[in-house]
Design a protein that fits this description.
Structural class of chain B: mainly beta
Number of strands of chain B: 11
Structural class of chain A: mainly beta
Number of helices of chain B: 0
Largest interface: A-B, 22 and 25 residues
Order of helices and strands of chain A: EEEEEEEEEEEE
Shape of chain A: globular
Strand content of chain A: over 45%
Helix content of chain B: under 10%
Order of helices and strands of chain B: EEEEEEEEEEE
Distance between the termini of chain B: 38 Å
Number of strands of chain A: 12
Oligomer: heterodimer
Number of helices of chain A: 0
Largest sheet of chain A: 6 strands, mixed
Shape of chain B: globular
Chain lengths: 114, 112
């Protein structure tokens, strides 16, 4: 069975500082990895995804993530955050297959302070 | 272009009342469809998924049911709501292959 662990429930950071949101997964098979962002009372928006190839993936809004197979991690980073990045961030994993079920972590609340 | 519609946006229902949330997808055919619930302060829990008309898989036992009467329509229902059914309900579709999910804007359900 697959599972996803987001190690931090809340991450406070000052504006223009770098940030890393941590995500670890467990799976016995190859998986696809995703990061989603959720602004208050809205649906989820895809930030980036890792399917194969280069382990460094660049997404929207200046975010990037690095897939590390040996450590089964997919941490999300941004070199300089803005107030507008304040939101809930979800890491998710999906194994290839017809159903395409996506398993989510518990989420990390990023709080950007002025 | 493909779009996903979910309504209503907010709903306040008394305990014991029925529920019907609707999700429709446009611009695609035979999508995989999903219902997720997000309880306050918690992550997303997969409730149901469907790979085709009339095909429903339930992930967790609960007070809810789902139906897919048409290819691009997915409905979440309950005959009698419980307080514990409160939460943020999200519909999503998956195009297949290596794509990601596309989510609807969600329904905030409060059972009082």
């Amino acid at each position: 069975a697959q599972s996803v662990t987001q190690l931090d429930s809340q991450v406070p950071v000052f504006e223009e500082a770098p940030v890393e949101l941590r995500c670890n997964y467990s799976s016995s098979v190859s998986v696809y990895l995703f990061w989603y962002v959720q602004y208050p009372n809205q649906g989820l928006q895809l930030l980036l995804k890792y399917l194969s190839g280069s382990t460094l993936v660049k997404g929207i809004n200046g975010f990037e993530a690095e897939f590390n197979k040996s450590q089964t991690s997919f941490h999300l980073r941004k070199p300089s955050v803005h107030i507008s990045d304040t939101a809930e961030y979800f890491c998710a994993v999906r194994r290839s297959g017809n159903t395409g079920k996506l398993i989510f972590g518990q989420g990390t609340t990023l709080q950007v302070k002025p | 272009s493909q779009t996903i519609h979910q309504w209503p946006a907010t709903l306040v229902q008394p305990v014991g009342s029925p529920l019907s949330l609707e999700c429709t997808v446009e611009g695609t055919s035979n999508p995989n469809l999903y219902w997720y619930r997000q309880a306050a302060g918690r992550g997303l829990q997969l409730l149901f998924y469907s790979v085709g008309i009339g095909q429903i898989s339930s992930e967790v036992p609960q007070n809810l049911s789902a139906s897919r009467p048409q290819d691009r329509q997915f409905i979440l229902s309950s005959k009698k709501l419980l307080l514990s059914d409160s939460g943020f309900y999200l519909c999503a579709w998956y195009p297949g292959g290596q794509g990601g999910y596309t989510f609807g804007s969600g329904t905030r359900l409060t059972v009082v």
